[in-house]
Design brief:
alpha+beta, 18-stranded mixed sheet
């Protein structure tokens, strides 16, 4: 019998409240993939991160939902690095992590903020309003009124990015079975829906994330999808500038940044309000060339330790 100590961490907290819980297990070099899955299932969170040694990176991280392994998880990455910082395993500084999504940079600031590098975005396909309408219970003409496309975007995991009019985010009524099959058909892990906040708000957008394909009905903070959404908003800001010019009255403060060379976009996202667990996620997109092909993407947040859990694993029969 093995006893596995799992640290329980709330990631992307706002003023030490809200956030999305993740399990974190340290020193997992001897655990098999099957054992990691059993631990993740026993913890029952949307994701659990497993930290091990790596020959070339500072650490290697693997991520398991209750249904299987995924290539990357933003909030579990934040949880793992925040835990290692709080335990004194890591100091403030710059690190590399090996994941199935690739080698990614992570920085820890002196006040405990974790800055996670994500992959350059992949914009893989656009989807009809009519198809997605059937999944989320919002009429196609309402979705079309945003004048923003529904698009699959990945900065580590592919999400379906869906804009809804301000005030309609809370009206989403997800059909989990249809969404699971649709995501499977279109090589996406879930739906990340958002509404733009009022210009007077310090938030860019409020978001909801649904990933029933991974066994997640709804998630209160999603780091990978937040990076994808930031790239989506930056891309469509570029397209609006190209079509309307920088003097357009419709240009947001983010769009006006495009009048500069190599612009940087800063976004603040809220997620989890519908679940009564509000999270705060910061995302930055820096475009490094005049052709808009070299992107640097990072997602930033804080985390709080909420406890521990001991998981008993039976030794395999011989």
């Amino acid at each position: 019998m093995k006893t596995i100590e799992v640290h329980l961490v709330n990631a992307f907290t706002a003023f030490d409240e809200g956030g999305n819980p993740a399990g974190v297990v340290l020193n997992t070099d001897s655990l098999s993939a099957e054992e990691k899955l059993k631990v993740a299932q026993a913890v029952g969170y949307s994701e659990t991160a497993f930290v091990s040694k790596d020959e070339y990176a500072d650490v290697a991280l693997s991520f398991f939902t209750v249904t299987g392994e995924v290539d990357f998880c933003g909030h579990a990455t934040l949880a793992a690095f925040s835990l290692m910082f709080k335990k004194g395993i890591l100091q403030a500084g710059d690190y590399t992590q090996r994941t199935k999504a690739g080698m990614l940079g992570v920085s820890i600031t002196g006040d405990g903020n974790v800055v996670m590098e994500q992959k350059s975005p992949e914009f893989t396909q656009r989807l009809p309003y009519e198809d997605v309408s059937e999944l989320i219970g919002i009429a196609p003409d309402v979705l079309a009124s945003t004048q923003l496309p529904i698009e699959v975007v990945s900065t580590g995991l592919p999400d379906i990015i869906v804009a809804v009019p301000t005030g309609d985010l809370s009206k989403i009524d997800l059909n989990a079975d249809k969404t699971t099959e649709f995501c499977r058909q279109h090589n996406a892990v879930g739906i990340h829906a958002f509404e733009i906040c009022e210009s007077s708000s310090n938030l860019t957008a409020s978001c909801r994330n649904f990933a029933p394909l991974l066994g997640i009905a709804e998630e209160s903070a999603t780091g990978s999808a937040s990076g994808a959404l930031a790239c989506y908003l930056a891309k469509h800001s570029i397209e609006e500038i190209d079509s309307k010019g920088s003097s357009s009255e419709n240009c947001s403060k983010h769009q006006r940044a495009l009048t500069k060379v190599n612009p940087t976009f800063n976004f603040v996202f809220e997620q989890g309000r519908a679940m009564g667990c509000v999270s705060r996620i910061l995302a930055t997109v820096a475009i490094k060339d005049s052709e808009n092909t070299q992107w640097e993407v990072s997602v930033v947040g804080l985390a709080s330790l909420i406890g521990k859990k001991a998981i008993e694993l039976r030794s395999p029969s011989i």
